[in-house]
């Protein structure tokens, strides 16, 4: 019996990150405390390095007749110390330079419709409070926010994904005069000047992706933008609707609306209720999560679960 | 005076138990990013308290106590809801349970109280006894037994599971 619980917990524990990732983090933090990236910036730096490698790889493929707009690498091997690091220090009691250690960075793609960008695997689908997220991540947006909107912290990198058709016209987007992997985008700066802003919009895909953050991080996220090939699609946002909620807040869409969104994307619905849900405060759990790239025709599972 | 022996020993401990530390942290948080943060803080604390770690009867139990205490303070911080990774990103070669089953465990743990969750993880994953768990949680062994019984009962409700008879082992 306790073996059964052990087995179940083992299965869940197996989904934890690799131990090597912890060792690498810990050693960097302890050996170079003054140079350790802030937690929020660490994934961004990872993307920066990864994007550089992807770009180099794309150029290489292009020279060989490959497709430079191909999928971003799911796993990118890089060597610490190659992305503008200061001279490699040595560990206490060791002559080996820290930069000799190799680390691995993983990214995944998120987006809406067939327009996607690559973000670090560790990024979460954040729930913005007052219209602003406080830690690196991506989020879906339908324009509803309470009146406590705040400026983002300068170091936070965010990817906002929204339906173009839901955005009022006449918005002050930067002019889309740049192209990456066949995707046009505009690059500008927030009015307060603390962050760069890149806007990728596609009327065909009905999507607008807004990337905000430090200039280098924004450019590197944008450099991974691409349109998915036929047969692939992203899971649509299913947990937010624009009607039926309190003023300034979002509401859960109806099952009909959920099914309609999935059908439009060429996906199928598997609806379930579990965990005693049915009364009281509930929320929707979507698997795979909204924004994830899947094959057209895939089944998306939606659970109604009790909120903690 | 050089810090080398401490560095070497603590490093060796962290290297040897890194996977175990991250997995324990993941079971306590259900979040890969939070697990890495918590495990990293624990490593730092292990390094600083290395003499106490090596003096403990069971250094891993001591490390688990450090982690649960750190988690106690972290838990109070507001935590954004994290959507779990989809099945394809959790393809562990040795995994024998399906995604649904594993996800149900995660959801079940998420619905437990902080102390129930810790008690269950420390008992059933680390196989610690009531007294050690009580020390880690700062309570009496009888309280641990109560936390385990209620926690498992609640998990069973969530999992709709009849494989547990209600008694702590």
UniProtKB/TrEMBL annotation, chain A:
Keywords: Membrane, Transmembrane, Transmembrane helix. Residues 1-23, 79-98 are annotated as: Disordered. Residues 79-97 have a biased composition (Low complexity). The chain crosses the membrane at residues 41-61. Residues 1-10 have a biased composition (Basic and acidic residues). The keyword Membrane applies. This is PASTA domain-containing protein. It comes from Mumia xiangluensis.
Automatic annotation (TrEMBL), chain B:
Pfam families: Sigma70_r2, Sigma70_r4_2. Residues 13-79 form the RNA polymerase sigma-70 region domain. GO terms for biological process: DNA-templated transcription initiation. Keywords: DNA-binding, Sigma factor, Transcription, Transcription regulation. Residues 104-155 form the RNA polymerase sigma factor 70 region 4 type domain. GO terms for molecular function: DNA binding; sigma factor activity. The keyword Transcription applies. The keyword Transcription applies. Belongs to the sigma-70 factor family. ECF subfamily. This is Sigma-70 family RNA polymerase sigma factor. It comes from Mumia zhuanghuii. The lineage of its organism: Bacteria, Bacillati, Actinomycetota, Actinomycetes, Propionibacteriales.
